[in-house]
Every structure is written in structure tokens, then in C-alpha cells.
Design brief:
Elements: E1 10-13, E2 30-36, H1 44-49, H2 63-68, E3 78-87, H3 93-98, E4 107-109, E5 116-124, H4 128-141, E6 149-158
Antiparallel strand pairs: 1-2, 2-6, 3-5, 3-6, 4-5
The chain binds zinc ion (ZN).
């Protein structure tokens, strides 16, 4: 399984990624930032784009960003974040379900492939990198859910 490093930068798209979109606001073009993570071939520009203010790569998660998202300026953009990751061992169903008890509309689901999971959430943050770092930071903070994981793809979108 060889994924190429087709990494996309900041793009404007009109896809409807977010399920929880606020339809009362005027229609604006969506901003989507996404990246396929490849540990062997990551350009510096991509690394810089995805580094949070605390110096952590969003794909590795940042506990400080996660904690900061508790009390955040409501005027900041609301990002729909998705992070796909793989694990060494399967996550118990109960642990998957318990994620819903946390705030921030966190959801941990298993799309189809074994050991591949999707963590999604809605968080307010100034930057897409901060939003993703905070959501992945949830995993870092909650090692009882998953002890070892590798984030393979990240996406943050807001309108
Ligand atoms: Zn951070």
C-alpha cells in the first residue's frame, strides 16, 4: 500500500463536507484545508502550514490546542475537522461510543477498513492547523481510547 504524497494546500471548494452547517448565514465559499500525511516526503511548506502555534504538527496532535478549544472566542471560524488514523490494535466498540460523551461534537467512527478510524469534530480556531491539532490532541490526551495511532489524512473546512 503506497500512498503518494499528493498533498493539497489551501483550496477553495464548494463541496458540502460539513453535516452541521449553519444555514442561517449567507452563503459563502467554503475554505477547505486538507493533507495526506506521508512521513517520508513532506515538503517544508506543508509542514509549516500544518504546524500549530505551539510548534506541534497537526497530525501529531497538540494537547494545548485541545485544551484551548474549551474556552474559545466565539467569533472565530467553526471548523469541521476530520482526521483519519490507523491503530496497531482495534479500538473496543465501547470506547468508540464513549467518545460521544465528550463535547465539541466529537465522533469516532470506523469507515470500513480494519484498524482505520475517522475522528471528526466541530471546533472553533483561528487556523485549520490549530483546529486539527486540537482534535488530534483529544486522542493524545485520552490514551485509554487508543494507545498507539498514526494519523494518515487530515481535513479542516469552514464556510
Ligand atoms: Zn497547539
Amino acid at each position: 500500500m503506497c500512498r503518494n504524497a499528493a498533498t493539497k494546500g489551501s483550496i477553495i471548494s464548494s463541496d458540502s463536507f460539513s453535516p452541521g452547517e449553519d444555514r442561517s448565514r449567507p452563503v459563502r465559499r467554503r475554505v477547505t484545508e486538507e493533507a495526506v500525511l506521508n512521513t517520508h516526503d513532506q515538503s517544508w511548506a506543508d509542514v509549516a502550514q500544518w504546524t500549530c502555534p505551539h510548534g506541534q504538527h497537526a497530525g501529531h496532535g497538540c494537547v494545548t490546542c485541545y485544551q484551548a478549544s474549551v474556552d474559545v472566542d466565539p467569533s472565530l471560524p467553526l471548523w469541521a475537522v476530520a482526521a483519519w488514523f490507523t491503530t496497531e490494535r482495534p479500538i473496543p466498540i465501547k470506547a468508540l461510543q464513549d467518545v460521544h460523551r465528550h463535547d465539541r461534537d466529537l465522533a469516532l467512527t470506523q469507515p470500513s477498513t480494519p484498524f482505520v478510524y475517522l475522528l471528526s469534530a466541530q471546533v472553533r480556531a483561528a487556523l485549520g492547523a490549530e483546529a486539527v491539532a486540537g482534535v488530534v490532541g483529544f486522542l493524545v490526551q485520552n490514551r485509554h481510547i487508543v494507545d498507539e495511532f498514526t494519523v494518515t489524512e487530515i481535513r479542516a473546512a469552514h464556510s
